[in-house]
Each structure stands twice: as structure tokens, then as C-alpha cells.
Design goal:
two-stranded parallel ribbon, about 55% helix, alpha+beta
Length: about 60
């Protein structure tokens, strides 16, 4: 029970750190036009909607 509590608290802290950072690093694997278009669309959506609450990573790699 104590281990589960420690793990849960650790995950919550990690989630808060990522959410507090509030930004994502979006990179392209092959720098193709389709990947660039996907990145632009994702950046537009991230600016339009407040989604930081659901961030579970700080880096995204778009691979066509």
C-alpha cells in the first residue's frame, strides 16, 4: 500500500512538472512537407485550445 502511494505521488509530481513546463518540443523525423504540415496543424491546435492539463510528454517526433 505504501509503495502504491509513493508511486502515485511520484507520477502526479511528474505530471505537474510537465504541465508546468507548458510547452512541447515538436521535431520532424524526415523534414518532409507532410511532416511540416502536421507540425503546423498541431502547433495551431495547441495554441487554440488549452490542452496543457493533458500533456504527458514534453517531446513529440512526427514520423511520416
Amino acid at each position: 500500500m505504501k509503495l502504491a502511494t509513493v508511486i502515485l505521488v511520484g507520477l502526479l509530481c511528474l505530471h505537474q512538472l510537465v504541465a508546468a513546463r507548458g510547452s512541447l518540443e515538436i521535431t520532424l523525423q524526415h523534414h518532409s512537407p507532410a511532416e511540416a504540415q502536421t507540425k503546423a496543424q498541431l502547433e495551431r491546435l495547441l495554441q487554440q485550445y488549452p490542452l496543457q492539463r493533458w500533456y504527458f510528454t514534453h517531446a513529440i517526433v512526427i514520423d511520416e
